[in-house]
Here is the input.
Amino acid sequence: MKVPKSGRHLGCLFGLVLGTIILFGTASRTSAAEPIEIFDAHLHYNWEPKPYFSLDEVLALFRKHRVTGILATSRPNTGTHALVDARAEGKADGLWVVPFIRPYRIRADIGSWFNDPSIYDLVREEFKRGGYRGVGEFHLTGRAATTDWVRKTVDFAVAHDLYLHAHADAEAVEILFAHNPKSRIIWAHTGFSLDPARVAELLAKHPTLWGELSYRGGITEGGRLTPAWRQLFERYPDRFLVGSDTWINERWASYGDIIAGYRQWLAQLPPEIAAKIAHGNARALFAGPAPAVR
Here is the structure.
């Protein structure tokens, strides 16, 4: 049977529309299948005296797991220098490296830095290299945060537009803000197991406090977001970051599992909130130029 010309035109139009639907449907499924990008806001590339994982291996992990940014620290700061240099030399294309000054030379400094004037000198000297966006991660518990050297470090950070990356309990966080209300604090581990209601109180009280979620307990139960943490994320979508905390080699060995764990519960949030926590909030914090050395 001969199909009228108008029928052939309709058939062609139908085929074009159907093909477009299939094409965009396929592209949409492909895009949806791509894992959400992650900004790792708690990363250590420690050199004591040299890293167990080579720089090339570490960069390959970032590419494999779609980690597109890192808050880079190390003990001593040599590892951070290596990551910054790799980015400058084009070895880390697609990776945003945000360096922080670690106030440690060796692991023993964790327990004494807050009373050690030589650590304050280390921070000031390291800052002169340029490009740094913060100081930390550093460890503080309770009244240990009251020392003059902690106060000097806080004031130095505020004066030079630097963030503080604090592994601290709630009391120490409050003391840091008491030292200088203009502080901007990334709270490593967000209190570990601190009640979510208390976390909410601190976020409400201090608008320049952000919670970083590595090792943070209670976010999920049986693989599902708990109601308390879902409520926190929905109430404060701009105030949370994720991180790996690669403080020991075992954390590097399980890096893929750590990142996959975040993606598992991020997928349970509205996409716009998930994107902020996964990478958007970190990018917003560090979007400006690095502070100039004065």
In short: Strands lie at 38-44, 67-73, 96-101, 134-140, 163-168, 185-188, 209-212, 220-221, 224-225, 240-241. The longest strand covers residues 38-44. Residues 38-285 form a domain with the TIM Barrel fold (CATH 3.20.20.140).
